[in-house]
Automatic annotation (TrEMBL):
This is Alanine--tRNA ligase. The chain holds residues 1 to 480 of 871 of the full protein. One of its GO terms (molecular function) is zinc ion binding. Its EC number is 6.1.1.7. GO terms for cellular component: cytoplasm. It is an enzyme of class 6 (ligase). Residues 1-480 form the Alanyl-transfer RNA synthetases family profile domain. Keywords: Aminoacyl-tRNA synthetase, ATP-binding, Coiled coil, Cytoplasm, Ligase, Metal-binding, Nucleotide-binding, Protein biosynthesis, RNA-binding, tRNA-binding, Zinc. Belongs to the class-II aminoacyl-tRNA synthetase family. Binds 1 zinc ion per subunit. Consists of three domains; the N-terminal catalytic domain, the editing domain and the C-terminal C-Ala domain. The editing domain removes incorrectly charged amino acids, while the C-Ala domain, along with tRNA(Ala), serves as a bridge to cooperatively bring together the editing and aminoacylation centers thus stimulating deacylation of misacylated tRNAs. The keyword Nucleotide-binding applies. It catalyses: tRNA(Ala) + L-alanine + ATP = L-alanyl-tRNA(Ala) + AMP + diphosphate. Signal peptide: none annotated.
Length: 480
């Protein structure tokens, strides 16, 4: 079944069960100071759960565009390395606002997966909240357990602790136990090779979580106490790309028809082959993942920029360009050429991609041109540095200058040095980095904005961005 049909099946299933099908909320959030990007289907319904507003429909379903690159959910570093975490992904969800509760939520989830999707029951596991012995002193979710027992064999029901099976939105507000559904994507033969006990091993990389059913039945008060909610709610989220992987009988989200057209295009552009060399594969996965995050953001009106959400988008795009530059040898703009493929593939479900296609292409191409120039300049400087270097180890402070002044990524420096038989003095680099951080910390103590102007009495010239994934947002200027 093609991804298009799978999405439609989900929505149709819940429509038949009198859910109102609503559009995805924008992925970029403009009016919530606590959240930059939508990271779960429930975000747009937050006010209903908090009781601040009353929903028009008590049953709702949709496919929500999500981005998990900052804050509590940050999957950026997993992307490319594993095959089922994305930056941007679709979360299929069904909700009950004070309407049905555990019984229907569980029965429908099971029916959808095993009857509509025809997933083999022997590949599915479900989890139930085991209770907690902490201050909350919560009981096991026996209600969910009994309901699952109607559908699932006993040895396929596993118990999870608070970290995995109790969901809270924040320090206060609605919360409750959850049940997750996991799919074992190993073949029968592979499963037979391991002993009985380790079959039920949810930490196995090929046992993948696909659907989370949250049962909101408590309210966490400001004093930390839990009280039962007068109206109980259901909030579910299923990874669409993961469901497609299972349905299309492949082992990686990237082998579904959501990603293969993009991968083929990268192969053509870069004259590369996917599936031969792990490093190249990771780069290709990063590129086809990141193009989605960036294109959908621009379609939502968030252009790459120097601050806030725009800066996050710029860094994601540059991360992809860098992977291409390093592992696929792409020295010219190429990411923008993927937009057409993406809009063809996803434009029906998300028309904003088609409407904004030209803008998205132009913005991405310009970003690429300017960043590639930075990389080029950095390379020339690096060459000079290598020529002037005595011995085989290159001074970490020198490498830091390159990084600091030109935004030349340090991992690229290390890679190039390695290729030429040199070694990077990493300790020296770290030390220089730390000093820089200390300097900017004291500078930012007097600055209210999220970037630091090193000098404000002189005219300034913009010279580069801080590209480390882990460090704070910082735009660098120097005196001219
Ligand atoms: P995981 O444990 O795999 O990181 P999660 O528990 O963080 O997932 P939830 O917050 O429960 O995820 O989100 C609901 C569903 O969304 C998950 O069951 C999964 O199928 C999907 N999902 C979560 N994060 C991602 C991601 N980064 N890329 C693709 N799908 C995701
Ligand atoms: Mg996660
Ligand atoms: Mg999880
Ligand atoms: Mg989960």
């Amino acid at each position: 079944m093609r991804s298009q049909e799978i999405r439609a099946k989900f929505l149709e299933f819940f429509k038949e069960r009198t859910h109102k099908i609503v559009p995805s909320a924008p992925m970029v959030i403009k009016d919530d100071p606590t959240l930059m990007f939508t990271n779960a289907g429930m975000n747009q319904f937050k006010e209903f759960f908090l009781g601040n507003s009353v929903p028009k429909h008590t049953r709702v379903a949709d496919s929500q565009k999500c981005l998990r690159v900052s804050g509590k959910h940050n999957d950026l570093e997993e992307v490319g390395k594993d095959t089922y975490h994305h930056t941007m992904f679709e979360m299929l969800g069904n909700w009950s606002f004070g309407d049905y509760f555990k019984e229907d939520a569980i029965a429908w989830a099971w029916e959808f997966l095993t009857e509509v999707c025809e997933i083999d029951k022997d590949c599915l596991y479900v989890t139930v909240f085991e209770g907690s012995k902490d201050a909350d002193n919560l009981e096991q979710d026996t209600e969910a357990l009994e309901l699952w027992r109607k559908h699932v064999a006993e040895d396929r029901i596993l118990f999870g602790n608070k970290a995995d099976n109790f969901w809270e939105m924040g320090d206060q507000g609605p919360c409750g136990p959850c049940s997750e559904i996991h799919v074992d994507i190993r073949t029968k033969e592979e499963k037979e090779q391991v002993s009985g006990a380790s079959l039920v091993n949810m930490d196995h990389p090929e046992v993948v979580e696909i659907w989370n059913l949250v049962f909101m039945q408590y309210n966490r008060r400001a004093n930390g106490n839990l009280e039962p909610l007068p109206a109980k709610h259901v909030d579910t989220g299923m990874g669409f790309e993961r469901l497609c992987m299972v349905m299309q009988n492949v082992r990686s989200n990237y082998d579904t028809d959501i990603f293969t057209p993009l991968i083929r295009e990268v192969e053509t552009i870069a004259n590369a082959k996917y599936g031969k060399d792990e490093k190249v594969d990771i780069a290709i996965r990063v590129i086809v993942d990141h193009i989605r995050a960036v294109a959908f953001s621009i379609a939502d009106g968030q252009l790459p920029s120097n601050t806030g959400a725009g800066y996050v988008i710029r860094r994601i795009l540059r991360r992809a360009i860098r992977y291409g530059f390093t592992f696929l040898d792409t020295k010219d703009p190429f990411m923008y050429r993927l937009v057409k493929v993406l809009a063809d593939k996803m434009g029906e479900a998300f028309p904003e991609l088609r409407v904004q296609k030209q803008l998205i292409e132009n913005v991405i191409k310009e970003e690429e041109q300017s960043f590639l120039k930075t990389l080029d300049q950095g390379l020339i400087l690096l060459d000079t540095m290598i020529l002037a270097n005595k011995g085989r180890t290159v001074d970490g402070r020198k490498a830091f200058e390159l990084y600091d002044t030109f935004g030349f990524p340090i991992d690229l420096t290390a890679l190039i040095l390695g290729e030429r038989g040199y070694e990077l003095d990493e300790k020296g680099f770290e030390a220089a980095m730390q000093e820089q951080k200390d300097r900017s910390r004291s500078a930012s103590e007097v600055s209210k904005d999220d970037w630091v102007v090193l000098s404000n009495d002189l005219e300034q010239e913009f010279v580069g961005y801080d590209l480390m994934e882990t460090s704070v947002k910082l735009v660098k200027y120097r005196k001219v």
